[in-house]
Every structure is written in C-alpha cells, then in structure tokens.
Amino acid sequence: MKSSKLRYLKARNWNSKNACKMLKESLKWRLEYKPEKIHWEDVACDAETGKIYRSNYLDKYGRTVLVMRPGFQNTTSTRRQIKYLVYCMENAIMNLASDQEQMVWLIDFQGWTMGCVSMKVTRETTRILQDHYPERLGIAILHNPPKIFESFWTMVKPFLEPKTYKKAKFVYSHCPESQKIFEDLFDMDKLESAFGGRNTVGFDYKEYSEQMREDDRKMTDFINSGYSPPSVLSDFPQSESSVSGCGSYEEVSCGDDRIDPAGSDDLTDEKIPGHLGCKDCANVLTEAQEKVMQMSESA
To answer: Beta partners for 108?
Structure first.
C-alpha cells in the first residue's frame, strides 16, 4: 500500500513544504469536524433516494465504487449534504482493499437539471474533497450528462485542480466507443444496468441501511479497541496547538479512452515549537493506515 504521505505529496506536486501545510490543515479539519463520529442515523434521511451509495461490487482493480446521482438530491441544506458526502467518503475508504488507496465514482445524470445545481454546495464539496481527501479519486465516470451540463462544467472547472478534472471521463449510452470504458473497468455481469451492465438489482434503501449500520458497528468497535479509525488521524495530540500553524466539451471524445490506473521525495522535518513536523505527520499517517488494514483483514 502506498503510504499516505505520497498522496499529500502528489496533491502538491511533490513540494514537501506545501504537502506538510496541507496535511496539517487536514488534521485540524478532522479534529474539528470529527468525520469518524458521523453515524448512519445522522445521515440516513439524505440516503433515502440513493443519491450517493457504495456499490456492492468493485472494479477490476479492486477499487471501491461510489455511485452518485445528483439528480436525486432530496435536501437543500449545504451542511447536511456535505455531512452525508463525508460519511460516504469515510465508509468508502474503510472498505478499500489493502492494496488500494483510490476509489471510482460512477456519476449517473438521470433526472439531473440545472435546478439541481447549487454553487455553494459545489464549492464546498470541491474544497472538502481536494483539501482533505487528496488522491482518493482514481477515476470519475460521468454517465450521460445532458448538453446543458457543459455550462455547469465550465463553472466548476476553475475550482478543480487540473489533475482532478482530467480524471473525469464522459460516457454516453449512444457512443459505443466511450462505453468501452465500462468494459475496461468492470465485470459487466456485476455492473448495474443503469450503466449498461447486466446487474438489474438497483439501490435498496432498507438493505443498504442494514449494511451501513453494520459498518458503523465495525468502526465503533475498532475505535473502542484503541486504534485509529480509517483515515482518521487521532494519534495526533488532540489540541489546537498541535495542528495549527470533459474540460469544456472539447475534452469529451468518443474515441478509445482506455484506463491505466496508476521514487518519491522525502518529507522534510522542519518542526515549529509546539507543532508536529512533516515526518511526524507522515509516520502517524502510515501507522494509522496499517492499523486500518489490520481491521479489514480480520473482518
């Protein structure tokens, strides 16, 4: 498994000082937001329509798959929507295989209109994902986006890192060449029929709720055992002082867009009195990930 420090370094183009700053800001956010303490009962209402859920199948590389249906939005509160997104991200990370750090997003535009758009939610979503979940996205497949989505994509691009929006692949049911992306990534017998697969079992809220409650129990048991929960950096001192301091549519092609999932600089250890050094951050991150893998192997 790649160490967590590599994700932060990659996100900051191998600049160790910028990566260290990013990591410390992420630590502060986690200590304040406490994503590991979000439980299913806190977000269950947001899940009723199946607007975001973890699929029961992986891609061919063993990566967790999050299905997103922005057209199924059922709440207007930015706070609630972000809270549910964070819960889904944490759950997806917890269920990553031991040799994977990235996930796949399948974004289905069924029912999507410009009326579903909130720039406030979009900006906050982008900030949370890019600042606190660096290099967690392997590929995002945008399935059948309507023509009007071009305007929205143009507005969103300035908020995205270039390496992030390049991971977005546009796929259309009427374009056999673009559909090959699904064939490259998935067992078509397992892929949902909404994306052209042969699996006709759709989202079942009751069944999914039971699955999430079970995952919550595993998370709680793991935390109570004294280990750091998945991707939660609680090994750090719990104090403020310890952490402070398709393009536009010319990018959309119907050609062959095959998928090829992907020595590093060491982090410097420039400590500030009363603050964590970069190597401290990296070492604890790696230790936390190793503990998570122990949980996943014993589950």
So the answer is: 143
Output the pTM of the full model.
Answer: 0.76
Tokens 């329509």 appear where?
A: 49
| Tens-level pLDDT at each residue, the chain (299 residues) | 346 788 999 999 899 999 999 999 999 999 999 999 999 999 999 999 999 999 999 999 999 999 999 999 999 999 999 999 999 999 999 999 988 999 999 999 999 988 887 888 988 999 999 999 999 999 999 999 998 888 888 888 888 888 888 999 999 999 988 889 999 999 999 999 999 999 999 899 999 999 999 999 998 888 887 655 555 443 333 334 334 443 333 333 344 444 444 433 333 333 333 444 555 544 544 444 444 444 444 44
Residue located via tokens 């402070």? 244
Residues in the chain: 299
Chain centroid to Cα 227, Å, comes to 22
Q: How many helices (H) and strands (E) does the chain have?
A: 11, 5
The letter for the amino acid at 123 is R
Contacts of 165 (CB under 8 A, 6+ apart): 157, 247
User: Other C-beta atoms within 10 Å of 217: how many?
Assistant: 12
| Rounded CA separation 175/169 (Å) | 13
Residues 199-207: contacts with CB under 8 Å, at least 24 apart? 199/57, 202/50, 203/50, 203/53, 203/67, 205/47, 205/48, 205/50
Helix (H) or strand (E) holding 171: strand 168-171
CB 96 within 8 A of CB 103: yes
Q: Return d(Cα 91, Cα 211) in angstroms, integer.
A: 11
Please state, in angstroms and rounded to a whole number, the distance separating the CA atoms of residues 4 and 236.
15
Q: How many CB atoms lie within 10 A of CB 151?
A: 12
